[in-house]
Specification:
The chain is of the alpha/beta class. It has a single domain, classed as TIM Barrel (Alpha-Beta Barrel). Helix content is 43%, strand content 19%. It has 9 helices and 10 strands. α4 links the parallel β6 and β7. Bound molecules: 1,3,4-trihydroxy-5-OXO-cyclohexanecarboxylic acid (DQA). The site of 1,3,4-trihydroxy-5-OXO-cyclohexanecarboxylic acid has 16 residues, from β4, β7 and β8.
């Protein structure tokens, strides 16, 4: 299994890594949030740029990225613009979405970018190439806020992401019942043990999905999102609580 190294963090080795989202709407809010979030010692911070009021002002966003980079020191920074189609907070045309990602890569201020797998294939491939040339890792992602696809479909999406060149394939689903949760866990286990040659990230959202956020080391998800000041998806628990459970599971794993 290939381990993905982001600064000093090794994703795919040992305890699942804890990523804390930043949900600030302004630069000032982001700066305050970073100060709070750093106290939880995250392995990585995710800037959820779709929440930022000025995200469509592409010239300003570079300044915000630079400020975050400075405030975070050595903590790895993941840039995510979650589109409204996939449960995000803002609508952007696909062209603007990719222009934003391209601009962010050019700043050199982020370590990882999230790219939505179901966006235009050619554009996704081009942005992966650009990220690679700039030594930035790519998470290809997919979110289903309504349901949990069949296991075969989850596996085929994760494999498709891997084939397209994602450093880390990621899927988040919404379970409607316990069977759905089992489906996600089983797909995670199969993908990580049989098909994946790199780390993957999966989660079932909502209250029913909680165990999937805690037991990544058992089923094969290499990272998990925990809230700092504000959760970015249903079912996320506080990063401190998450860390306690992750380290306890790690301690007793064979
Ligand atoms: O893709 C994900 C996972 C997530 O949706 C979750 O369920 O924790 C939270 C998002 O901020 C992140 O981009």
């Amino acid at each position: 299994m290939k381990v993905v190294k982001v600064r000093d963090v090794l994703i795919g080795e040992g305890t699942p890594k804890v990523i804390i989202p930043l949900m600030g709407r302004t630069d000032k809010q982001l700066a305050e949030e970073v100060a709070v979030v750093k106290e939880s010692e995250p392995d990585m911070v995710e800037w959820r740029a779709d929440v930022h009021e000025r995200v469509d002002c592409l010239d300003e966003i570079s300044g915000t990225a630079a400020q975050l980079r400075k405030d975070l020191g050595e903590i790895p920074l993941l840039f995510t613009f979650r589109t409204d189609k996939e449960g995000g907070n803002r609508e952007l045309s696909e062209d603007t979405y990719f222009r934003l990602l391209s601009k962010i890569i050019d700043t050199g201020m982020v370590d990882v970018i999230d790219v939505e797998y179901f966006a235009d294939k050619l554009k996704v491939e081009t942005i992966i190439q650009q990220a690679r040339e700039n030594d930035i890792r790519v998470i290809l992602s997919n979110h289903d806020f309504d349901k949990t696809p069949e296991m075969g479909e989850i596996l085929s999406r994760l494999q498709g992401m891997q084939e397209m060149g994602a450093d880390i394939p990621k899927i988040a689903v919404m379970p409607r019942d316990m069977e759905d949760l089992f489906t996600l866990l089983q797909a995670t286990s199969k993908m990580s043990r049989i098909y994946a040659d790199r780390p993957i990230i999966t989660m079932a959202m909502g209250k029913l999905g909680l165990i999937s956020r805690l037991a990544g080391e058992v089923f094969g998800s290499a990272a998990t999102f925990g809230s700092g000041k504000e959760a970015s998806a249903p079912g996320q628990i506080a990063a401190e609580d998450l860390k306690l459970v992750l380290s306890t599971i790690h301690k007793y794993q064979i």
